[in-house]
């Protein structure tokens, strides 16, 4: 069983397409968990329209990391994967990752390539302002990842600092510190939608969070080295 977790805040414009891309997966053994992170738009109604095909969890707005953690705590699967409400999976994303993971000896985290696209509903004037690399890129992001419950327990939960940008980067740095195996598939597993409200584009003033995350990781590594020398 694969638990698919989508944490969403005010995602009425794109959420339906994201859910459909999960339900169209050719991998049958899955559960779909939607965490409605305090949305004030029609997000909850969209989730409810999918009926029993998805599990809806409502919570007050706590941020993306907290939303993912809520989904994990309710998940019953032996494997976890995530999707942002504005992105889309290819139909065989889960099946190709599960095949790779189950054939591996070291239980790696499995990532896929990602391809970006400009949201077709953006006005032409806005589209001209955005530059997107249309070539497939290695996708070291939550939306391309599949991992076992056991590996997740080794790494731990996501940061729940609501105003922090880059909670996945902080979490991924723990993977590197723990030397957990990672495998990048050459196939595209996710299409990333570029629009005016992408978190990274919307919160430019908070990009200093990335530097704080990197510094914290370096400090932890230095402390580990000192402990080994002691």
CATH class: Alpha Beta
Low-confidence stretches: 201-214
**Strand order of the biggest β-sheet:** 3-2-1-4-8
Number of strands: 9
Overall number of structural domains: 1
Describe the protein in words:
This protein has helices at 15-23, 43-48, 64-74, 93-103, 124-129, 149-155, 167-178, 199-202, 208-229; strands spanning 2-8, 30-37, 55-59, 79-82, 88-89, 109-118, 137-138, 146-148, 182-194. It has a five-stranded mixed sheet with strand order 3-2-1-4-8, sandwiched between helices. It has a four-stranded mixed sheet with strand order 5-9-6-7. By secondary structure, it is of the alpha/beta class. The protein contains nine helices and nine strands. Helix 7 (167-178) runs parallel beside helix 9 (208-229). The chain has a single domain, classed as Spore Coat Polysaccharide Biosynthesis Protein SpsA, Chain A, CATH 3.90.550. It is globular.
List descriptors.
single chain; 230 residues; alpha/beta; Spore Coat Polysaccharide Biosynthesis Protein SpsA, Chain A; five-stranded mixed beta sheet; four-stranded mixed beta sheet; 9 helices
Walk me through the topology:
Blueprint lengths: L1 E7 L6 H9 L6 E8 L5 H6 L6 E5 L4 H11 L4 E4 L5 E2 L3 H11 L5 E10 L5 H6 L7 E2 L7 E3 H7 L11 H12 L3 E13 L4 H4 L5 H22 L1
Parallel strand pairs: 1-2, 1-4, 2-3, 6-9
Antiparallel strand pairs: 4-8, 5-9, 6-7
Give a short overview:
The chain is an alpha/beta fold and 230 residues long. Helix content is 38%, strand content 23%. The protein has a single domain (2-229), classed as Spore Coat Polysaccharide Biosynthesis Protein SpsA, Chain A, CATH 3.90.550.10.
């Amino acid at each position: 069983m694969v638990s698919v977790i989508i944490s969403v805040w005010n995602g009425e414009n794109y959420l339906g397409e994201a859910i459909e891309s999960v339900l169209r997966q050719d991998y049958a053994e899955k559960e779909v968990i939607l965490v409605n992170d305090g949305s004030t738009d029609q997000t909850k109604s969209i989730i409810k329209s999918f009926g029993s095909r998805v599990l809806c969890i409502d919570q007050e707005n706590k941020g993306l990391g907290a939303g993912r953690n809520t989904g994990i705590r309710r998940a019953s699967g032996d494997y976890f994967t995530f999707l942002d409400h504005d992105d889309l999976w290819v139909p065989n994303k889960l099946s190709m990752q599960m095949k790779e993971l189950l054939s591996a000896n070291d239980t790696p985290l499995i990532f896929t390539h990602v391809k970006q696209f400009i949201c077709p509903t953006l006005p032409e004037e806005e589209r001209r302002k955005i530059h997107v690399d249309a070539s497939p890129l290695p996708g070291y992001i939550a939306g391309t990842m599949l991992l076992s419950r056991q590996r997740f327990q080794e790494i731990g939960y996501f940061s729940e600092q609501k105003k922090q940008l880059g909670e996945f980067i902080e979490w991924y740095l723990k993977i590197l510190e723990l030397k957990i195996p990672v495998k990048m598939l050459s196939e595209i597993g996710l299409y990333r939608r570029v629009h005016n409200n992408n978190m990274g584009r919307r919160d430019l003033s908070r990009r200093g969070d990335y530097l704080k995350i990197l510094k914290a990781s370096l400090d932890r590594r230095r402390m580990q080295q000192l402990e080994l020398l002691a």
